[in-house]
Amino acid sequence: MNGFIQTLKNIWSLKELREKILFTLGIILVYRFSTYISLPAINLAEVGDLLEHYKSQGGNKQGAGLLGLLSSFTGGAFANASIMALGIMPYISASIIVQLMGMAIPYLQKLQKDGESGRNTLNQITRWLTIAVCLVQAPSYLTSITQMFLPYSQFQSAYYIEPSQFMFWFPSIVLLVAGSVFAMWLGEKITDKGIGNGISILIMVGILAGLPQAFVQEYVTQTGAAGAGTIVILIEVIFWMVVILLGILLSVAVRKIPIQYVSRAQARGGVTKNLMDGARQWIPLKVNAAGVMPIIFAQALMFLPGLLTKVDSTNTFLGGFKNVFSWQYNLLFALLIIIFTFFYTAITIPVNQMADDLKRNGGLIPKVRPGKDTSDYLDDILSKITLPGSIFLAIFAILPALVFGWLVQTEGFALFFGGTSLLIMVGVILDTIQQINTYLLNHHYDGLMQSKLSRTSNPQ
Questions:
Q1: 197 and 260 share a domain?
Q2: For 89-98, 181-190, 373-382, which range has the lowest pLDDT when averaged over its residues?
């Protein structure tokens, strides 16, 4: 505990790091306040009651689970009809599209290799594509909320303007697009002037915003007349901590491939002698090299069956895809995650380039020939570790459905037991901690250098 307090003091003592953290917290506050600004055509006071009524309908409970999942990524803005309802997800979608298009379009491939100028151009393309995605998603969002809520005549006062009018659609679409672009701008400001990856931090903040309410609802349910008591809450918290630990292990687990480098050839007494580096080095191949991207890809496709099915279709096979806790939803979800894990790993881990770089720099894997044999060896190892990694990732993603009902009694709290939400939180927190540690280590290194220089310049 003393070490933790001392670390906090060290962080606060660094002016640059302190300013970055305070700047990041300020941007997060702006983002959270923005999520409570509703669309001008929506009566926010009625939306909460309308959602509760919608969720309470037995025939519509499946749709509510899908709605809750969508809302969790925007900190409730999606369900509250906020100007930030689309959140940062259009930017994520645009980034994925640009990344996939980079495999097929030579111009984008050239930009990826052009260094800083190429990255700036790719970022600009991603921003414009984000606006295009918003122009598609905004009308879809407005259509979904009008179709969900208009059938209930007792909630017609939820709209200040009739949803069929032009003055409902045009300003709402403009504000939804502007809100998403504003969220993108806030994320980029965090990346530039704050600490951590801004886009990821905003997603994590949106997810964490629903955690306190979800835990309170679970506590009330378990301690109520039909609940199992406080001891079950304790068991849930312990199990949740174990799940978080497993998520951390999944994020950091690597397979180390030993390599050796030939530093130089030196002639001594007419004999040429290869001098090897003293320390053996490694190629760290991550067990889950794809991160959360397979879950995001699969999640995007899993929305399609639910959107193609009517809201009140609850007793059909396709109706089950509206329920994120149904067996058919999670079976297909797990299969898609396994497939996308192999796909995304194959396109992001260039084993041929790794083998060429090793050969060019004088590196080699013991007992493996340089060149194609090294490439085949790396590809074989990557395939072997990706299979268990993809299976574990799939189990981790459907864990909320596995614990819901027999352990966790509320849908909101169950969504935090694995899935995209928990993996994003774990990944962002680990990345932010790593950046903070880097600042601390650099400061310590600079201090040692300054002390050394002062001793050199002032000899006794």
A1: no
A2: 89-98
